[in-house]
Specification:
By secondary structure, the chain is an alpha+beta fold. The protein has one domain. The chain is 53% helix and 15% strand. The protein has a two-stranded antiparallel ribbon with strand order 1-2. Strand 1 and strand 2 form a beta hairpin. Helix 2 (23-43) crosses helix 5. It is elongated and about 65 Å long. This is HK97 gp10 family phage protein. Pfam families: HK97-gp10_like. InterPro entries: HK97-gp10_tail.
Length: 96
Protein backbone atom coordinates (compact mmCIF):
# COMPACT_ATOMS: atom_id res chain seq x y z
CA UNK A 1 0.00 0.00 0.00
CA UNK A 2 1.27 3.43 -0.92
CA UNK A 3 2.08 5.87 1.82
CA UNK A 4 1.20 9.54 1.98
CA UNK A 5 2.27 11.34 -1.20
CA UNK A 6 3.09 8.11 -3.04
CA UNK A 7 1.32 6.74 -6.05
CA UNK A 8 0.03 3.19 -6.20
CA UNK A 9 -0.69 1.56 -9.55
CA UNK A 10 -2.40 -1.79 -9.89
CA UNK A 11 -1.84 -3.09 -13.43
CA UNK A 12 -4.32 -5.45 -15.03
CA UNK A 13 -1.91 -8.22 -16.06
CA UNK A 14 -4.44 -9.94 -18.33
CA UNK A 15 -4.70 -6.83 -20.53
CA UNK A 16 -0.93 -6.75 -21.00
CA UNK A 17 -0.86 -10.50 -21.67
CA UNK A 18 -3.53 -10.06 -24.33
CA UNK A 19 -1.67 -7.19 -26.03
CA UNK A 20 1.77 -8.81 -25.88
CA UNK A 21 0.41 -12.08 -27.30
CA UNK A 22 -1.66 -10.45 -30.04
CA UNK A 23 -0.99 -11.34 -33.65
CA UNK A 24 0.16 -7.81 -34.47
CA UNK A 25 2.80 -7.66 -31.73
CA UNK A 26 4.02 -11.16 -32.58
CA UNK A 27 4.30 -10.23 -36.27
CA UNK A 28 6.19 -7.04 -35.44
CA UNK A 29 8.67 -8.92 -33.21
CA UNK A 30 9.07 -11.74 -35.75
CA UNK A 31 9.70 -9.15 -38.47
CA UNK A 32 12.46 -7.52 -36.43
CA UNK A 33 14.09 -10.92 -35.88
CA UNK A 34 13.84 -11.73 -39.61
CA UNK A 35 15.46 -8.38 -40.43
CA UNK A 36 18.35 -9.17 -38.07
CA UNK A 37 18.64 -12.66 -39.58
CA UNK A 38 18.86 -11.23 -43.09
CA UNK A 39 21.60 -8.83 -42.01
CA UNK A 40 23.50 -11.62 -40.24
CA UNK A 41 23.31 -13.90 -43.26
CA UNK A 42 24.35 -11.20 -45.72
CA UNK A 43 27.43 -10.27 -43.65
CA UNK A 44 28.35 -13.78 -42.50
CA UNK A 45 31.87 -14.91 -43.28
CA UNK A 46 31.70 -17.80 -45.75
CA UNK A 47 34.21 -20.61 -45.71
CA UNK A 48 32.01 -23.64 -46.17
CA UNK A 49 28.70 -21.79 -45.74
CA UNK A 50 27.74 -23.90 -42.72
CA UNK A 51 27.76 -20.96 -40.30
CA UNK A 52 25.60 -18.81 -42.58
CA UNK A 53 23.20 -21.67 -43.33
CA UNK A 54 22.96 -22.56 -39.63
CA UNK A 55 21.53 -19.15 -38.67
CA UNK A 56 17.80 -19.19 -37.93
CA UNK A 57 15.02 -17.50 -35.98
CA UNK A 58 13.65 -19.44 -33.02
CA UNK A 59 10.48 -18.78 -31.05
CA UNK A 60 10.86 -18.49 -27.27
CA UNK A 61 7.72 -18.62 -25.11
CA UNK A 62 7.90 -16.65 -21.85
CA UNK A 63 5.34 -16.35 -19.09
CA UNK A 64 3.68 -13.23 -20.50
CA UNK A 65 4.83 -13.01 -24.12
CA UNK A 66 6.54 -14.65 -27.05
CA UNK A 67 9.94 -13.49 -28.26
CA UNK A 68 12.11 -14.42 -31.21
CA UNK A 69 15.86 -15.04 -31.19
CA UNK A 70 18.38 -15.26 -33.99
CA UNK A 71 20.55 -18.28 -33.21
CA UNK A 72 23.31 -20.26 -34.87
CA UNK A 73 23.27 -24.05 -35.04
CA UNK A 74 26.67 -24.66 -36.58
CA UNK A 75 29.22 -26.09 -34.11
CA UNK A 76 31.64 -23.24 -34.84
CA UNK A 77 29.09 -20.45 -34.28
CA UNK A 78 30.68 -19.32 -31.01
CA UNK A 79 34.12 -19.21 -32.62
CA UNK A 80 32.87 -17.13 -35.56
CA UNK A 81 30.97 -14.80 -33.23
CA UNK A 82 34.00 -14.30 -30.98
CA UNK A 83 36.10 -13.30 -33.98
CA UNK A 84 33.58 -11.26 -35.99
CA UNK A 85 30.67 -10.20 -33.78
CA UNK A 86 28.39 -10.83 -36.74
CA UNK A 87 25.15 -11.25 -34.76
CA UNK A 88 25.84 -8.18 -32.64
CA UNK A 89 26.38 -6.12 -35.78
CA UNK A 90 23.23 -7.59 -37.34
CA UNK A 91 21.13 -6.65 -34.33
CA UNK A 92 22.46 -3.09 -34.42
CA UNK A 93 21.72 -2.92 -38.16
CA UNK A 94 18.17 -4.18 -37.60
CA UNK A 95 17.48 -1.29 -35.20
CA UNK A 96 17.89 1.24 -38.01
Amino acid sequence: MAGYGQTYIDFNESVFDEILNSAGVRAMCRGAAEKALAAARSNAPVDTGAYRDGLAVETVQHEHRTTYMVVGHDPKTMLVESQTGNLTKALKAAKS
